[in-house]
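Could you show me some protein's one-letter sequence and the numbers that encode its backbone in two labelled lines?

___
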Amino acid sequence: MKTEKKTNLNKIVQGNIDVDSATIAAGEMLKALGVDLSDPSLKLTPARMANSYAEMITPVEFEMTTFPNDNFYDELVLVKDIPFHSICEHHLLPFIGSAHVGYIPDDKIVGISKLARIVEKFSRGLQVQERLTAQIADFIQSELNPKGVGVVLVAEHTCMSLRGVKSIGAVTVTSSLKGLIRESDRSRAEFFSLTK
């Protein structure tokens, strides 16, 4: 059973995250970076930091709603431009972008809002874009057993745009294809033409 923990900002975070310890650690890190936490405007910054990260790395569970494919629809279903954000596991900075998620149904179809929920579920946590792309495709494949799955993520990584090389505006594109969307030239071409 999940436990709930309240912080001094009255924010509730579920799961096994120790927000109080994270707040102390955030304060220590900020002090080590020379931040004066006695400033009234910074006093609650460590708790805000801990709560922000706790929220961004806690997956949001949902119920996968599927329906029988009574009309035997066998063409591509695509939801484009699903906004997402995740945290780079190497620098703990966000990467932000959009997901294009499609599938070719077999026996089941899914409530289309659930495609956005799947993206959100796997975006929460410390991630790399390549793994995130594969996890979304693998989950759809395992839950629906469709004839094909296609996932494309396009994201700007702030660990690359705000630090290091500082390539503002550069985007990273990853894809994961399964079944007909990978094997059929026609289906693959249709998927990529519609995700542009």
Remarks:
- DSSP finds seven helices and nine strands in the chain.
- The beta strands are 4-6, 12-14, 66-68, 77-88, 94-104, 108-110, 126-127, 148-157, 172-179.
- The two ends are 43 Å apart (CA to CA).
